[in-house]
Amino acid sequence: MPTHARPTDDPLQRERAHLAESRAALRTMRADTEALDLTDVTGNWVNAEVLRREINERIAALADLADAPLFFGRLDYHEPPGGERPGPEAGPLPGPPGERFYIGRRHVHDKDGDPMVIDWRAPVSQPFYRATPREPMGVRLRRRFGYTGGELTAYEDEHLTAAGLAGADVPASALLQAEIEKPRVGPMRDIVATIQPEQDEIVRADIGGTVCVQGAPGTGKTAVGLHRVAYLLYAHRERLARTGTLVVGPNRSFLRYIEQVLPALGEVDVAQATVEELVAHVPLRGSDSAAVARLKGDARMAEVLRRAVRSGVRMPSEGLVVVRGSRRWRVPAPEVEEIVRELLDRDIRYGAAREALPQRLAHAVLVRMERSGEAPDDRVQDAVARNPAVKALVKQVWPVVDPPRLVLRLLSDGDFLAECAEGILDGDEQRLLLWDRPARGVRTAPWSAADAVLVDEVTDLVRRTPSLGHVVLDEAQDLSPMQYRAVGRRCTTGSATVLGDIAQGTTPWATGSWAEALTHLGKADAVVEELTRGFRVPGKVIDYASRLLPSIAPDLTPATSVRDSPGSLSVRLVDPAELTAAVLAACRAALANEGSIGLIAADARVAALTAALDAAGMACLSPGDEASRACRLTLVPASLAKGLEYDFVVLEEPSAVVEGEADARTGLRRLYVALTRAVSGLSVVHSRPLPAVLAEGPVPSV
Ligand SMILES: Nc1ncnc2c1ncn2[C@@H]1O[C@H](COP(=O)(O)OP(=O)(O)OP(=O)(O)O)[C@@H](O)[C@H]1O
Questions:
Q1: Ligand 1 center–CA 354 separation, angstroms
Q2: What is the pLDDT of residues 546-574, one digit of tens each?
Q3: Which of 173, 324, 568, 612 lies in disulfide reach of 681, CB 3.0 to 4.6 Å?
Q4: In a domain, 591, yes or no
Q5: Would the CB of 503 count as within 6 Å of ligand 1?
Q6: Alpha carbon distances (Å) from 81 to 3, 87, 121, 125, 571
Q7: Residue 675 · residue 541 · CB < 8 Å
Q8: Is 595 assigned to a binding site?
């Protein structure tokens, strides 16, 4: 890339000049795109519309966002990338530098087409995230830029091949540290400038395989998953544009919290959904006890449903008789039965087999026609397949399956359930599955979330669910085996990124091991990676929360904190009569700091706390709402805290959070989630004894 002569020796001034030139180049690129004349290139209206839309998207992508720096890093290669890479033993190389690349969110080129900013996802950008003095990847200098309000104000250099550095570890970066320590406000931000090497390996992992990330709270799982989608869309744009990508999250609040990350990375064509939304075949009007939901989510249900779907297939009592003109063609019952059995044995969907049956029967008729000297062609076979006698037989032996109706029958009709569950579920389990009262119709049945997953399974048994190119499944530890199957069938021909933390599993059916979960997902050969460097929770707070780990997930490695600040942690015991007032006071104290405040409490306490905040004139938001300067306090029911983070957290009555769950382990896991949402500080206010495992060891004081 040609270096432009600049009238200053001050490196910061030179970098600012490059920023100004890059911005100007981006403006030109945008203006050129806006000025494109489509009149001659498109033959028809539809093409013109498609092209116009694409161009509008490109114009939007070329916007110079005020709060997102155009570039955040620079790489000076020893030589053009791709040339021989100097090993660590080579030491600093003499002579003129190789190529220089500025790394940013999107590609910008000058009027000659020379790159001024390189997309962070391009191969030449990779050393920005991965190079070390031990393995410099051909890079001489890595420069990180610091911005204040859109202004380039600082830079930080690493001379990766400087004498004495070979083989050394990467020195800590002050700019990275500053980025991590920044107070949080509003929705999740991208981390494109500071992706860490262990994260980058996951982000850029090959699209062919599924990656599963077990990561302690705040290790960047969600961030990594979203950047991985952006990376894959860059590296495989055409393929994924055809097949689609999907991010699955635990609830709408969470999806709202993360929804701006991908657009900030220039990607808007990614669907986001909860598992419930994916399987929304029936209106939800009921709920299940934990035991029932666990059973409905059990993988054994898949076989029960498979049997239920096929249970309607009847062997014919009589053969097929087709009348054509003056002739009658007869296919005897045993032959029809053989055709039906052969279709049952084939590994095809119920619906596809049903569609194939008329042609199979017609073929049997055609064979007879040929034997008697006729020469029927394909059209005759099609006509026979449409013959009323064939249609009637198909209807009789291979009835249409309506998935909601079939599941309704299974949950309402004990005899039918017994027939389908024989040898799979015992009598007690079968009784547990049945609704209290048989349902009358699909629209009024007391469908629960777990029932909807069963309907989805049946839907797929009847007709194959279309598969996407890539699915990111966040908070994956909470899915039941049947839910894994539901997500898995949406990426049978694609791959998945599975993100989760066993210690944060808070559903009664939460998975006990990734190997098991991945098997249900249909991706048993996935690679499991573990992240333990935490970017959110300060050291003091994560150590406190980790006291719960031996009780909730003894095999996991406790997270460390990469934050410099140890954070503030206070645990205050107050009189029960003063609990609410003390919680409000803690919120007020937290509001004196910068950033967002999350008040987390047991779900059952939310109504009372809403009223108390209201009476005290303290405005508050719901999870996923965007914080503003005027309102930075969010009241978070413990059940919705997962995946979210706040600069400062006030946690009310840990015992109540634990008791809000069906069993003690789930309760402690819910508490673990609540304790690990804070970025700068955590203030625990309680009036009852703390759960014993948390109280062990010195209790941090105010
Ligand atoms: N490399 C990084 N540079 C800067 N910030 C980072 C980096 N990685 C993660 N973070 C920040 O750390 C915080 C936690 O990240 P994230 O929510 O992705 O973690 P998580 O592993 O999904 O956590 P949880 O299990 O609690 O949901 C976020 O604010 C994220 O932006």
A1: 49
A2: 999 999 999 898 888 888 777 789 999 99
A3: 568
A4: yes
A5: no
A6: 17, 14, 15, 10, 54
A7: yes
A8: no
Last residue of a domain, one of 143, 171, 199: 171
Residue nearest to atom 1 of ligand 1 (CA): 195
Q: Is the pLDDT of residue 358 over 50?
A: yes
Q: What angle do CA 193, 199, 203 make, to 5 degrees?
A: 85
Query: Per-residue pLDDT tens for 184-199?
Result: 777 788 889 899 999 9
Any binding-site annotation on 43? no
Residue 75 Cα to ligand 1 midpoint, Å, equals: 25
Compute, in angstroms, the gap from residue 218 CA to the centroid of ligand 1: 5
Q: Is the CB of 129 under 6 A from ligand 1?
A: no
What is the DSSP secondary structure assignment for residue 201, as one 8-state letter?
H
Ligand 1 mean position, distance from CA 667 (Å) = 24
Please say whether the beta carbons of 594 and 647 come within 8 A: yes
As a residue count, the chain comes to: 702
Does residue 540 lie within any of the structural domains?
A: no
Q: Average pLDDT of 119-139? A: 92
Q: What is the pLDDT of residue 2?
A: 42
User: Quick check: CB of 277 below 6 Å from ligand 1?
Assistant: no
Residue 121, φ and ψ in degrees, nearest 5: -90, -10
Q: Is 523 annotated to bind ligand?
A: no
In a domain, 422, yes or no: no
Q: Grade residue 163 by pLDDT with cuts at 50, 70 and 90.
A: low
218 marked as binding residue: yes
Q: How much is the mean pLDDT over the chain?
A: 89
Ligand 1 pocket check for 272: Cβ under 6 Å: no
ipTM of this complex prediction, to 2 decimal places: 0.99
Structure tokens at 447: 């469908």
Global pTM value: 0.89
Q: Cβ–Cβ contacts within 10 Å for residue 225, how many?
A: 25
Q: Which domain holds residue 106?
A: 11-171
Q: Is the pLDDT of residue 499 over 60?
A: yes
Residue 596 resides in a domain:
yes
Asked if residue 97 has pLDDT above 60, the reply is no
Q: What is the pLDDT of residues 257-306, one digit of tens each?
A: 898 888 888 887 899 999 999 999 999 999 999 999 999 999 999 999 99
Q: Check if 671 has its Cβ closer than 6 Å to any atom of ligand 1.
A: no
CATH of residue 592's domain is 3.40.50.300
Q: Is 83 annotated as a binding residue?
A: no
Q: Is the pLDDT of residue 106 over 90?
A: no
Residue with CA nearest ligand 1 atom 26 = 217
| CA-closest candidate to residue 223, choices 269, 182, 180, 175 | 180
What is the domain count for the chain? 3
> Which residue bears the tokens 């791959």?
495
Compare 62 and 437 and report the one with higher pLDDT: 437
Question: 142, 171, 200 — which closes off a domain?
Answer: 171
